[in-house]
Amino acid sequence: MRAMKKGLMTVLGVALVGSQLVACSNTSDQNKPAATQDAQKPAATQAAAKPVEITWWNFPNFQTLDGEVGKYEKQIIAAFNEKHPEIKVNLEMITFDGGPQKLNVAISSNTAPDVIYDAPGRIIDWGKKKLLAPLNDIIPADIKNDIAPAFWKQSTVGDQIVMYPLNTGPFMMAVNKTVFEKIGALDLLPLSRPDRTWTVAEYEKALNAVKEKAPEIIPTGFFAKSTAGDQGTRAYLANLGVSRFLTEDNSKVAINTENAGKALDWVVKATKDKISVAGAASLAAADVNDLFLQGKLAFTLNYSPVLKAQNVANKKVQFDDVLLPFPTLDGSKPKLEPFLGGLAIFNNGNADKIAASKKFIDFVVNDPVWGKKNIIQTGGLSARTSITGLYNDPEYKYADLARQFITDPPTIADGYAEIRTFWFPELQRALTGGATGKEALDAFAAKANDAIAKAKAQNQK
User: Fold this and answer.
1) What is the pTM of this model?
2) What range does the record give for the signal peptide (predicted)?
3) What is each CA distance from 110 to 6, 114, 126, 348, in whole angstroms?
4) Does residue 408 lie within any of the structural domains?
5) Which of 94, 111, 213, 228 is the most buried (most CB within 10 A)?
């Protein structure tokens, strides 16, 4: 525990892009993890078990019921207690704005929750600091083989699984289809193509059509105020410039190419030409998405099936929001980062709490009734390859198809928590005229590469 406490005192926080849930299917009792088999025993059998109390901290990953934050989560706990009345689960809802810092404080003061539902950006960092309990023993072979290797890379540190993958989906752009219908320019969108891929030239033509025919609408957005939503900007620039953010082995930065530099220059010029939002250096991802939900923005950069579902209640005007991949310079296939939500357990030194937490996680993910129900409540796709067709919606069918474009995200890189803090300051420099696109990306690469090297050396100790 000394090493554990030392690790807890040194954790650094990072911002999150919101993340999500879940995977499930019926499996034979022989292949199910022990927690699942225990959960299926009658409540009377479980009543004699040793009472345990655990704490679950959750970001608002599920859509609310009746507008009440946490109401759905309480229903999960009630259903879990029908099978495990001996385990009391204390729920605490945290926000995407203040939650990360609250977690940092809890970890540094040795008061971390038992269970957290989060994303790889933080969870892998905690795992590398040996703050989490391994989950290998509750994931049977049939489930492990049903989840793509790319997702396991985001859930594993060494040979230890530290996050149970739950729900997923590709991060993409979204377009206000209603705007293009009103201006008679729907043919400028790649919606007639099954994979919806398109070029930067086609994208620019669509932006200029909005500027000309709907001057009250901002054609597209960009943002550089904070780390939240950074996957939107890095994927945008990487695809516009037909580049990668990091090398395939995540050992160094790859986005400081000539083409990516020109892509950032294009964003700066687009702002001056009034086809991209003004003041991007002082806008956050949430600000840009709010403009989109107000019907004031034709394209937004940081979207996903989950956000599409969650935003139904947040639209200020009614319009049809449609998912699109990022355009590429030459029309090649885009590279989309996946969001991935999952559950992890902090190793707080209590074996009974860890065992109880594993039973709770297993219920959330694999219960025959609540597993799929939980996925749908997040608006995401299942992390399990075999679980599809959860929604009768063409946009979800497209999101399933767009899985083919998913690439490894940089969240698993050594030093990711520090890497992302260097990204937006350099974007701001370019947007405010302090550097060319290439100069800004080179400066970012120098700082990020140093952070990667230092973190890798530290993690190897």
Assistant:
1) 0.77
2) 1-23
3) 10, 11, 13, 8
4) no
5) 228
